[in-house]
Each structure stands twice: as C-alpha cells, then as structure tokens.
Amino acid sequence: MQRTLKPFSFELLAGDPGCGARRGRMITRRGVIETPVFMPVGTQATVKGMLPEALDEIGAQIILGNTYHLYLRPGHELIARLGGLHDFMNWSGPILTDSGGFQVFSLGELRKISEEGVAFQSHLDGSRHLLTPESSIAIQEALGADIIMAFDECIPHPAEREYVVDSTARSGRWARRCRQARRPDDGAALFGIVQGGMYRDLRRQSAEELREIGFEGYALGGLSVGESTELMYEVMDYSLPLLPEDAPRYVMGVGTPENLVEGIARGVDMFDCVMPTRNARNGVLFTSSGKLSIKQARYREDESPIDPRCDCYVCRHYSRAYLRHLFRANEILSSVLNTHHNLHYYLNLMAAARVAIEQGSFTVFRRDFYAQREQTVPA
C-alpha cells in the first residue's frame, strides 16, 4: 500500500484579490492534497461511523490520527509491526498525526509538566508514562504518518501572562528538540505549532522562533479552547501574517462551517475538528441553511431530505422522518448516515471554496454562504 512520491512540497496556485484566501497544493509521499482542506478526525485509527472507502467517496484527502491514544492502545510498536497506520486501518491516502500534547495537557491532575516532557497517568488503566518531544516524534514515525506535529503545550484560556510566557518558551525549546529528533530517512513533513495564548507579542515571539528553527508547515495551536469567536479571529488576523508565505498554514481544532469560511478568508490552508462527527452522533446535522436537530418532533413525518441543496448519498436516499426514527430508536445506522452527511457537507464546502478562490470570487462565495444562513432554518 505504500506509495512514494517526491518529498513533501507546497505550492501556492491562486489567491483571492478581495481577501487573504489561498489556493494551494501539498505533495506528500502518499498523495496530493488540494488546499484549503478539512481533515476528518480519526482519533483511534478510525473516523467514527465511516468506512475508508466511504471517506474516499466523499472526497476526504487526508485524515488525522492521535499519538496519545494510539500509543496507549493498541501501541505504536504493534502498529509498526503490522505495516504502519495506513495498512492497519486500510487507508492509502495521507495521514497527519498530532503530537499528543493536547491530550496529555487535558488530563489535569493526572499529568505533571517538566522541562523533560510530561509525566502522566493513562486514562485507561492508571499506568504511568512519560511523553517527551523525542518520544512523541518517535511514536509518530513508527505510526508512519505523512505529516507529524511538534510536541507542544496547548495553553488554556483564560491563562495568566506569566504562565503563558513560561509555557510558550518551553514549547519553543521542545520544538527545537523535535526538529533534532527527526530521523533523516523518515520522509514525513514536520510542522511546528505557534503558541502564545491570546497575547500578540508572545504569538510573534513563538512564530519567529519556529521560523528560525525551520519546519515544512506551521500551525496555530491554542485556539478553540474557550475564547470568544471574535478573539479567535483576532488571533488569526495578527498571527497568520507572521508565518512563511510558501508553507502551509494549519489552524488546529477549528471548527464550525463559519469558522472555516472565516479562516480561509484570512489565509488558512488546513483545518481539523471533531464537530461534524460528534454532532452527527448527537443528531445535529449541518446544512446550507444552518444546523438542523433531527431529533425534533417536527420531522416525524417529513419526507424531505436533510438539505435539498445537498447531493450526498444520504440526502439522495433518506428522509428526515427516517433519520429521526433511526436516532430515536438508537440505531447504529443513525450515526453512520448522519456522519456521512456531515462530513460530505464539510468536504463539499471546502471544494466549493477552492473553486471560488481559483475564480477570484471567494468574497462573493463568502457573502452567499451567509446569505443562505439568513433564510428560515428548521432548527
């Protein structure tokens, strides 16, 4: 299943004259990725409710795996022995793995941070572990990911400036260790992660340090951690211009369809979020007119599709009434169909954005996106 292309590269193909939107192309060792791109989240070597073939059918170009979870279960060494993550989960396209930083820092009392790394107790069985910049890189290399992330600390919000100063500086030192720990023959791209909380000067400091170290791509971390939407956009506004023009820009853990459109307008190339899959399992569906809660009684006899403007398999074959029945009956098929639709919606949104940027009409695309949401929406 291993497909070898030329080493990682990124090329800007177009830009929209009315905003910062960028149309690009990444080449990885396992395939080409057209940007801007949304990455479905496959935390434990699976995108919940989706066969790999179905992901390919709806246009998924790259999926995301999780270092922390796969390290604990079933173990990166086992996955490596079985041919790597691609063979293990039967996905031939590119995979990005996060470093595990967000997960270990969200453990609260179960973890302790030091200069060496993070000592933590497993949420599964209480066993003790140490995750360092070096071990995070080694785990991701063993998994065989095509894009791997530097180990950093995801700073919560709100946070005192003194804490953010110390954490950002430590993440910078860890980023340098990650760069040094890379196996020269591995072939994966390594992305650095800009931290700094909500402080403009600390974001600049972090971005400048990462640029000095040198990475194949750059991410904004520490967003979608409780801050307001306005503050998130403000951080994007002053942080993204600090990143190299000729490298991909990735905003981690974001977000709603509105967040994606606004991120693209500001020059973001890559997104990931559990929102489409998690909402699907809770009966919340994304449509061109906004969100729809399929559990509501108003859909009991509704023969219409989720979204009349959608051409996905679910909207072509199933009614709101049937999808409501599945959800109320707690049938597994409910999660499968809802997830299929939501991911199709996200991926189709990104595909349409790429076309709009190519045509120099993203500003019109953005305006129409919001105009559709002003129509009457069955909530």
UniProtKB/TrEMBL annotation:
Ranges of residues in domain tRNA-guanine(15) transglycosylase-like: 20-374
GO cellular component, one term: cytosol
One Pfam family cited in the UniProt record for this chain: TGT
Binding site for substrate: D98, S99, G100, G101, F102, D152, Q195, G222
Any one GO MF annotation of this record: metal ion binding
Pathways involved: tRNA modification; tRNA-queuosine biosynthesis
Cofactors required: Zn(2+)
GO biological process: tRNA queuosine(34) biosynthetic process
Domain of life from the UniProt record: Bacteria
Keyword entries, A-Z: Glycosyltransferase, Metal-binding, Queuosine biosynthesis, Transferase, tRNA processing, Zinc
Co-factor: note: Binds 1 zinc ion per subunit.
InterPro entries, alphabetized: ArchSynthase1/Queuine_TRR (IPR050076), TGT (IPR004803), TGT-like_sf (IPR036511), tRNA_ribo_trans-like (IPR002616)
UniProt KW tRNA processing keyword: yes
Annotated binding of Zn(2+), by residue: C310, C312, C315, H341
Residue numbers spanned by region RNA binding: 253-259, 277-281
Active-site residues, Swiss-Prot/TrEMBL: D98, D272
EC number assigned by the record: 2.4.2.29
Catalytic activity reported: 7-aminomethyl-7-carbaguanine + guanosine(34) in tRNA = 7-aminomethyl-7-carbaguanosine(34) in tRNA + guanine
Subunit structure: Homodimer. Within each dimer, one monomer is responsible for RNA recognition and catalysis, while the other monomer binds to the replacement base PreQ1.
Function: Catalyzes the base-exchange of a guanine (G) residue with the queuine precursor 7-aminomethyl-7-deazaguanine (PreQ1) at position 34 (anticodon wobble position) in tRNAs with GU(N) anticodons (tRNA-Asp, -Asn, -His and -Tyr). Catalysis occurs through a double-displacement mechanism. The nucleophile active site attacks the C1' of nucleotide 34 to detach the guanine base from the RNA, forming a covalent enzyme-RNA intermediate. The proton acceptor active site deprotonates the incoming PreQ1, allowing a nucleophilic attack on the C1' of the ribose to form the product.
Listed name of the protein: Queuine tRNA-ribosyltransferase
